[in-house]
Amino acid sequence: MSETVRFAPSPTGEIHIGNVRTALYNWFLTRDGGTFVLRYDDTDPERSKAHFAALIAEDLAWLGIHPHRVERQSARLARYDAVADDLRARGLLYPCYETPEELERKRALQRARGRPPVYDRSALALTDQDRRRIEGEGRRPHYRFRLPGGARAWEDRCRGPQSVDLATLSDPILVREDGSYPYTLPSVVDDVDFAVTVVVRGEDHVTNTAVQIALFEALGAQPPAFAHHNLLVRADGEPLSKRDNPLSIARLRAAGYEPMAVASLAALVGTSEPVRAVPDLPALAEAVPLSAVSRGPATFDPAELDRLNASLLHAMPFEAVREWLEGETGEADPVFWEAVRGNLALRRDALDWHRVIRTPPAQGAPAGPEDRAVLEAARASLPPEPWDETTFRSWTEAVRGATGRKGRALFMPLRVALTGRGSGPEMGPIIALLGREAVADRLDRALSA
Question: Which of 114, 371, 401, 422 has the greatest number of CB atoms lying within 10 Å of its CB?
Answer without folding.
Answer: 371
